[in-house]
Write a structure and sequence with these properties.
alpha/beta, Rossmann fold, eleven-stranded mixed sheet, 24% strand
Length: 292
């Protein structure tokens, strides 16, 4: 994903929405989980935060949270309510930092560009280290991606489908490259949350900076792709959330293979109690816990 191709206004909105962060760096992945940690991958130090509730036991679930373009992992951990959910339900949360393309700009190389960072490799390696050294359950490892982080979550489902048991994409989409070539070795359950008035990742799709060359698809097409890939042949429509329509795709063998939250009139933002009347991350955890 080329930062130079992002218009100034779009870039500014991303920075305002997904924020900055500073803090000390620690190189030991088994250090104090409240500090910034470092994972070495591809000859580079990649930063992340790790939150573990007090008394977390071996075999606990792990949620990876991916920020948007220009975002900071430190800021994300305070702005999503995921830590409170972790305390309530007993799981760990890791907040990796996207690669820096200049001192004040970060992103996930989800298109991918060959000259960019190997983020599939980084996330795969980080998850493996955390699972083995901290004892998290690989069968309960999930990812929540916001905006560009959601594009990265789809990229992982396409190119490294064994890493995450399910993904949640909030205000994201599939890159043009993934839309053309995605053929994973196994299907991944998907939750997708999207506003119909998203000005940065449009509901109807667009030819723009998210993928090299060809257009990204309309959001309902993305959902239908994953519903078909998961073998869904039934759909249930619920209106149990304020301002959202929940489509639940399943099959005769398994329910809840794909959830789609259509938010009429909602823009490019993370739904929370203030702007939407519900938290998207709460729905994500609800979706994750339905895995058999």
């Amino acid at each position: 994903m080329s930062i130079n191709a992002v218009s100034g206004m779009r870039f500014l909105i991303f920075l305002l929405v997904f924020g900055w962060g500073i803090g000390p760096v620690h190189s030991d992945p088994l250090g104090d989980v409240q500090d910034r940690l470092v994972h070495r991958h591809g000859g580079a130090d990649r930063e992340y935060y790790l939150y573990e509730p007090e008394g977390l036991t071996s075999g606990a679930p792990l949620v990876i949270a991916l920020h948007g373009l220009g975002g900071r992992a430190e800021r994300l951990r305070y702005g999503t309510h995921l830590n409170a959910l972790a305390d309530q339900h007993g799981f760990a949360v890791a907040y990796p930092q996207g690669a820096e393309v200049r001192p004040t700009t970060s992103y996930w190389n989800a298109a991918p560009e060959p000259v960019g960072s190997d983020d599939v490799g980084f996330l795969t390696s980080l998850v493996s280290v955390l699972e083995h050294r901290r004892g998290y359950d690989p069968a309960q490892t999930y990812v929540v991606g916001i905006s560009n982080g959601g594009v990265m979550a789809y990229d992982m489902a396409c190119r490294a489908p064994m890493v995450f048991e399910a993904i949640a994409v909030i205000a994201g989409t599939m890159s043009g490259a993934d839309w053309q070539h995605c053929d994973p070795s196994r299907a991944t359950p998907v939750l997708h949350v999207h506003g119909t008035e998203d000005e940065l990742i449009p509901w109807e799709g667009e030819t723009h900076w998210l993928g090299p060359g060809d257009a990204t698809p309309a959001i309902p097409e993305v959902v239908q792709f994953w519903a078909a890939r998961n073998g869904a042949d039934t759909v249930q429509v619920d209106r149990d959330l304020p301002g959202a329509v929940r489509f639940r795709y399943g099959s005769t063998r398994q329910d809840d293979l794909v959830w789609f939250l259509q938010m009429d009139g909602f823009g490019h933002d993370l739904p929370n109690l203030t702007n939407a009347g519900f938290r998207a991350v709460d729905v994500a955890w609800e979706f994750f816990r339905l895995r058999p």
